[in-house]
Design brief:
The protein is 49% helix and 12% strand. It contains 38 helices and 22 strands. It is elongated and about 130 Å long.
Length: 1003
């Protein structure tokens, strides 16, 4: 039976009352509070140690309001959390100014610069790590303050009168208490490390602690409340309100001492009732019943007490318990979702999802969001503001700001420009219609050119694309240039080495306005909260506004503040509510059903991260929280949840990420033993498997539909794809499917090839011009010609690569590798000239047409065309020409290509195209009878005779005939729409975009 509320006596002492934390806990508490009101004929003040049960207590007071109450006490008793009660202290505005968390972190930063002892501690920390350490330092200082403040009550009374505090006297007491605690905790052990740590911590405490700290304000508030109660008792005809303290969770020893002292003092002026929780009828495990002993260990139980535990287990609502084990993460998330849905179907209106495993809870939440407005989801686990889309948009701007002077990577640039809160039209001062497709075009250009980083690289890629568009009948897009200049302008404003906090905040706000992000963030719930979080950095009028920082330090601080902020969802009307919350938040709360995920041995119980500065032993002597205390509290929280809620589902994952088996929590195993395994069986998730018979995947075969258009223009690369694998051609050229474009790691070889092609064309055109000058040094013999060619090719290379190097310093290595090739390349060129060949032209479009009949007997003309790298002419034979293809590959790969020239007939296509249309190749009267691949990446040899850079196409006339017959047959099969089968070798499939469709490797 629950204890009855005590009779209020006139003795000036604290009266104790305990309630049983079961399903009737709120009813017991509400009736007791009303009993207090009736006995004292006054409206009690009810203060809860934690805020979780606040709404439930108020609802219970309304529900169990006695009839025929005296009008004097008819109003609902005031119920308030301990934190809110402290903030409501009379005259709190007179207290020393409260420091924000940000200001306290900045105070650590300031003192680091002033004191060498502190700098030595932080010297190895990164910016982000330093701010995390700052938080740990502040927490440790608060722990010391909590320990010493109760011993300074006289000083606090003086502070209330004079608004001053003797910090030197306080520091001496801190040092004394800390030394005593260390001596007790580390008896017989070396204290060198501990002494050094304590010295650093005390130095922090000396420089950081002031009367505006939360700990000091807390004790000031309690002193003010107590002082007001005493003044009312002495000077007023009205009696002081009764005070009811509800201890909803086990307090830290230091907190217990503080509240004990307050209640004892308050009881001299008014009735005081301490409400605690009686675990006798509720505890399902011995640790939940007995708690800690005098040495702060777990009390050992005797036979009678074990019998009581067994009785509690037997009499609990075990019929509503379900144990569910899933093998994989996704399966567990679906099982949690199904459990919630089953309770909703059963008519449950208020359901809790206890997130012992927060990742599973997040996934289950996403799955449950499909229910729409029928289910209201309230996340009380502290959903980080940093995980919202609005924070990601801000982070994209911060990453742009953080980029080096040369410019950001293309990925960072595109992430910023593509964030949904950026208003492109506002940025460019254009109409929204004119900005449609602008980012897609920019991404296509950057990916196609593999322009990976640097403003100069981006500009060069866009200018090249605009130039190509102009020369091919398209329209250049000037807005792309303006967009890059706009982003460059934002980035350039942050290139100053040091900022003041005030200047950095103003600059950030100005850029949010300039990008139109402020207006869009204000229309979003998370965006509004993000803007509010940023207002904390408005330090212009405070003591830290002129504080100077490097940009990485300020950005890390900004991200830390956003990471600490929680996102609060807006409420909505719905048929049912799902509360996602930690186990600790279920105390004294009522739910129709509970689903708890993460009940395995690794996650239940869970412990908070150990303090950076204090060991568990030292925490014990400092009267702070310990692992043992956390273990006992969680055992009690779980006991209360199981006993008070009629339906509880306990879920866990039976296999870890590594495939190792995971057992359920020891508490669950002990329950099974106490009840018998048959009474509490583990069930599999109720997930209906997909039904049907599977069939082995066969080799992929494409059958072009009659309505599917066949291209009438074929490029050399497209024809190679057709020869390599008809199915690959079917997917890429006929269906038009493409792999998502992306940036590759490192400097792309294709971009290097494009650059080399361009500079070689410019160089040889300059060579032709120079040869026409009669007094040029290139006419002074082979050595002079060779020297001129090497020097000028070096210069052309430097010039062509210049912008790329500015944009991405990694390109410099590619340039230097090519420059090592130049002397050998010039030697090959001069050798070729001695054989009678001269450079003629480069980058010329050539092609030819063939006529076929389609299945309907209609003649179809198909054009095979491409762009040849280079044509040479022979000086002594006016009818002879050659085609050359540059390859940024070594000779081994080129030789492999030559072995299968009919499958990769690029040079044969150029040769036939030039022969059938000599004017297009600027070769009137000449025929291409020679073709070569030239390596721009050949192995350098000191022996010129062994140096190999060219690989000719052997048996050219015969190959040309075979190619002509082959291409007609291949394209006839294509137009006949014959099945296109996947049969390529692994060397082709390895990098094939269509492999994910044809699924080679599974057949």
């Amino acid at each position: 039976m629950p204890q009855s509320f005590p009779t209020i006596s006139k003795q000036k002492q604290v009266q104790a009352w305990a309630i049983t934390p079961d399903a009737t806990a709120l009813e017991q508490l509400a009736k007791g509070v009303w009993d207090c009101a009736v006995q004292t004929k006054a409206r009690p003040l009810v203060v809860l140690s934690t805020a979780g049960p606040l709404i439930g207590v108020r609802a219970a007071l309304e529900k169990y309001r006695p009839k025929n109450l005296d009008p004097q006490i008819a109003f609902l008793p005031q119920v308030i959390s301990f934190t809110d009660w402290l903030e409501a202290a009379p005259g709190a505005w007179k207290f020393p100014k409260k420091q924000t968390d940000l200001e306290r972190w900045l105070s650590v930063f300031v003192n680091l610069r002033k004191h060498k002892t502190l700098q030595a501690w932080f010297k190895a920390e990164s910016e982000a790590g330093a701010w995390g350490l700052a938080q740990a330092v502040i927490q440790a200082c608060d722990a010391l303050s909590e320990l010493v403040v109760p011993q300074l009550q006289g000083e606090f009374n003086g502070l209330l009168q004079t608004h001053s505090l003797d910090t030197q006297a306080w520091l001496k007491k801190v040092e004394l208490v800390l030394d005593q605690a260390i001596a007790k905790a580390y008896v017989g052990l070396s204290k060198n490390v501990v002494d050094e740590e304590a010295a650093v911590l005390l130095a922090f405490w000396r420089y950081l602690t002031n009367a505006g700290d939360p700990v000091i304000r807390k004790h000031l508030a309690m002193a003010v409340h107590l002082q007001c109660a005493k003044e009312i008792a002495l000077n007023s005809s009205n009696s002081v309100r009764p005070f009811i303290w509800v201890q909803t969770a086990d307090p830290k020893p230091i907190d217990q001492e503080v509240i004990d002292h307050y209640l004892a003092e308050y009881s001299q002026s008014a009735p005081v009732v301490r409400v605690s929780l009686d675990w006798t009828k509720v505890a399902l495990w011995s640790e939940a019943l007995f708690g800690q002993d005098a040495k702060e260990g777990i009390v050992q139980s005797d036979v009678d007490q074990e019998r009581q535990i067994q009785h509690n287990v037997d009499s609990s609502v075990k019929e509503g318990w379900r144990l569910i084990s899933a093998k994989r993460f996704e399966e567990l998330a679906w099982a949690a979702t199904k459990s919630v849905e089953s309770h909703l179907i059963a008519g449950k209106k208020h359901i809790a999802l206890v997130a012992q495993d927060r990742l599973v809870a997040r996934r289950a939440r996403a799955l449950l969001s499909r229910l729409g407005n029928a289910l209201r989801i309230r996340d009380e686990t502290g959903w980080k503001l940093s995980t919202t889309r609005a924070a990601a948009a801000l982070d994209s701007l911060l990453e742009l700001m953080r980029a080096p002077k040369e410019g950001p990577s293309a990925t960072i640039l595109l992430e910023f420009l593509q964030n949904p809160y950026l208003d492109l039209a506002h940025c460019l001062q254009k109409t929204p219609e004119s900005c449609i497709g602008l980012l897609a075009q920019l991404e296509d250009i950057l990916v196609a050119s593999q322009a990976k980083s640097g403003w100069e690289t981006f500009m060069a890629a866009i200018e090249k694309a605009n130039g190509y568009a102009t020369s091919h009948g398209g329209s250049p897009n000037q807005q792309l240039i303006e967009l890059i200049r706009f982003a460059n302008g934002l980035h350039g404003q942050w290139q100053t080495s040091i900022f003041t906090c005030a200047d950095a905040y103003e600059k950030l706000q100005a850029q949010l306005e300039a990008t139109g992000m402020v207006r869009r963030l204000e229309k979003d719930a998370a965006g509004k909260q993000l803007l509010e979080a940023l207002k904390r950095f408005d330090l212009g009028s405070g003591p830290y506004g002129d504080l100077k920082m490097r940009l990485p330090e300020w950005l890390s601080l900004l991200k830390t503040v956003i990471e600490e902020a929680s996102y609060e969802e807006a409420g909505k009307n719905s048929q049912a509510t799902l509360s996602i919350l930690p186990l600790s938040s279920t105390r004294l709360r009522e739910f129709d059903a509970v689903v708890m995920v993460g009940c395995d041995e690794q996650q239940l119980p869970s412990f908070s991260q150990p303090p950076l500065f204090f060991s568990d032993a030292l925490n014990r002597y400092l009267k702070s929280s310990t692992i043992t205390a956390q273990y006992i509290q969680q055992a009690r929280d779980l006991s209360q949840l199981l006993v008070s809620c009629p339906n509880v589902d306990l879920l866990w994952q039976s296999k870890s990420k590594n495939g190792e088996p995971l057992r359920p929590s020891a508490w669950i195993a002990r329950l099974q033993v106490a009840l018998g395994k048959n009474a509490l069986k583990v069930s599999e998730p109720s997930l209906k498997p997909y039904e049907g018979q599977s069939q082995p995947i066969q080799m992929a075969i494409g059958k072009p539909d009659l309505d599917l258009a066949i291209p009438t223009t074929v490029t050399p690369s497209a024809y190679k794809a057709l020869r390599d694998c008809p199915y690959r051609y079917y997917v890429s050229s006929l269906l038009g499917l493409r792999k998502a474009k992306e940036f590759e790691e490192g400097f792309d070889a294709s971009l290097a090839g494009q650059t080399l092609h361009a500079l070689l064309k410019n160089f040889f055109q300059a060579l032709k011009t120079e040869e026409k000058k009669s007094h040029s040094p290139i006419h002074d013999g082979d050595d002079a010609r060779r020297q001129w060619m090497i020097e000028h090719l070096m210069q052309f290379s430097e010039k062509e690569f210049e912008r790329l190097v500015v944009g991405d310093a990694r390109v410099l290595g590619t340039l230097r590798d090519w420059q090592k090739q130049i002397p050998s390349f010039i030697d090959w060129q001069m050798k070729r000239e001695k054989e009678g060949w001269r450079y003629h032209d480069a980058e010329l479009p050539v092609g030819f047409a063939i006529t076929l009949k389609d299945p309907n007997g209609v003649d179809r003309e198909i054009r095979i065309a491409g762009r040849a790298d280079r044509f040479d002419i022979h000086q002594s034979d006016k009818s002879l020409a050659a085609v050359i293809d540059y390859k940024n590959q070594d000779m081994k790969k080129i030789a492999s290509r030559a072995e299968n020239v009919l499958d990769d007939p690029q040079l044969l296509i150029y040769a036939r195209g030039a022969n059938e249309d000599p004017d297009a190749a600027h070769l009137p009267g000449r025929a291409v009878q020679q073709a070569e691949w030239i390596s721009l990446k050949a192995k350098i040899s000191e022996d010129e005779e062994k140096q190999v850079r060219a690989h000719p196409v052997e048996d050219m006339p015969e190959l040309m005939q075979q190619f002509s017959v082959q291409i007609v047959q291949d394209l006839s099969d294509l137009w006949a729409r014959k099945p296109m089968q996947a049969f390529a070798p692994d060397s082709v499939c390895q990098y094939c975009d269509a492999r994910g469709i044809c699924r080679k490797g599974m057949w």
